[in-house]
Amino acid sequence: MRTNRLLAATTLSVTAVALLTACGPEKSGGADAAASAAPAAASSPAASSSPAGPTPDEVVAKARTAGAKLGSVKITFSQAAPTGRTTGALAVDRAGNCAGTMTVEGSGGGQVVRNSDGDVWLKPDAAFLAGLDNPGGDTGLDDHWFLFPKAGANLGAEFTRFCDLALPVQETAGQAAFESPVATGIKAKALPVSVDGVNMLSFQLFEGDKAGAPVLFSTDDEPRLLSLETDNGSSTMKFSEFDQPVRAVPPPSDKVIRTK
Questions:
Q1: d(CA 141, CA 131)
Q2: What is the separation, in whole angstroms, between the first and last Cα of the chain?
Q3: pLDDT per residue rounded down to tens, the chain (260 residues)
Q4: What is the DSSP letter of 221?
Q5: Are 159 and 112 spatial neighbours (Cβ–Cβ below 8 Å)?
Q6: N or C: which end of the chain has fewer CB within 10 A?
Q7: CA-to-CA distance for 259 and 45, rounded, in angstroms?
Q8: Residues in contact with 160: Cβ distance below 8 Å, sequence separation at least 6, in sequence order
Q9: pTM, whole model, 2 decimals?
């Protein structure tokens, strides 16, 4: 199979995570309502008439506390890469269960399931199947899943890297590469803003005199990090479905093709 391009494109380095600097939508009254109310790359926020509010340090500290207690979360992601943009949505919990979809532009992807034992199943989509080495064209695998067992060379890990990013990013409130919010160059107050009718808290990160993308959190007592994006929009992460059950149900055994 020609899977190298798909596997390589799923890798997100720690450096890339550290560069992500913006958060997405949320309605007042709960992080889940806000996260689903607007896209990660929402319209420019309109600042409240009152600049009063908590400091960015306070927001990040509270968000880290909330993230440390979080049992599960859904991450919706998009990342540009030379091999093609990787997109998808995966729900993950503390036990390691993960379920959702992942696709690489030009290579395909499919449905992904990982259980708490670390076994991974992939139900390939049409684009992925089209890339398999099969002169006849019809693979006969339309309704089948590939099983990547945890033991041995675990190719399944390449399909679930974003599963392993979601909770750590929440635990650090998106500031994984820094010892404290101060080190990121955060300035000014966390302002109340409204994006498409959704209430959030916003502040900006600075590198020297250059302002980065605004960082947006929910307005809960324990604020949630809702989304991140790079200044140029090449990478985004959006978070929702906080503390919701993750249904990581393995497929029927007669539909599974075990890989080595």
A1: 12
A2: 13
A3: 333 333 333 333 222 233 233 333 333 345 665 554 433 434 444 444 344 567 777 888 899 999 999 999 999 999 988 888 999 999 999 999 999 999 988 888 899 999 999 999 999 888 888 877 554 455 567 778 989 887 555 667 778 889 999 999 999 887 654 434 444 455 556 777 777 777 878 776 655 566 666 677 888 888 998 877 776 778 888 899 999 999 999 999 999 988 86
A4: S
A5: yes
A6: C
A7: 48
A8: 90, 98, 112, 114, 120
A9: 0.74
196 contacts: CB under 8 Å, gap ≥ 6: 25, 37, 38, 42, 43
Report the run of H or E that residue 169 belongs to, with start and end.
helix 163-171
Q: How far is CA 49 from CA 92, 111, 170, in A?
A: 38, 45, 29
- Rounded Cα distance between 244 and 249, Å, is 15
Decide if 99 contacts 89 (C-beta within 8 A): no
Q: Which long-range contacts (CB under 8 A, 24 or more apart) does 146-151 make?
A: 146/121, 146/122, 146/256, 146/257, 146/259, 147/119, 147/120, 147/121, 147/256, 147/257, 147/258, 147/259, 148/119, 148/120, 148/121, 148/122, 148/259, 149/119, 149/258, 149/259, 150/117, 150/118, 150/119, 150/120
Tokens representing residue 236 in the block = 């985004």
- Amino acid residing at 82: P
Strands 227-229, 198-207: pairing kind:
unpaired
**Residue 59, φ and ψ in degrees, nearest 5:** -65, -50
Neighbours of 226 (CB within 10 A): 32
Asked if 245 and 177 touch (Cβ cutoff 8 Å), the reply is no
259, amino acid identity:
T
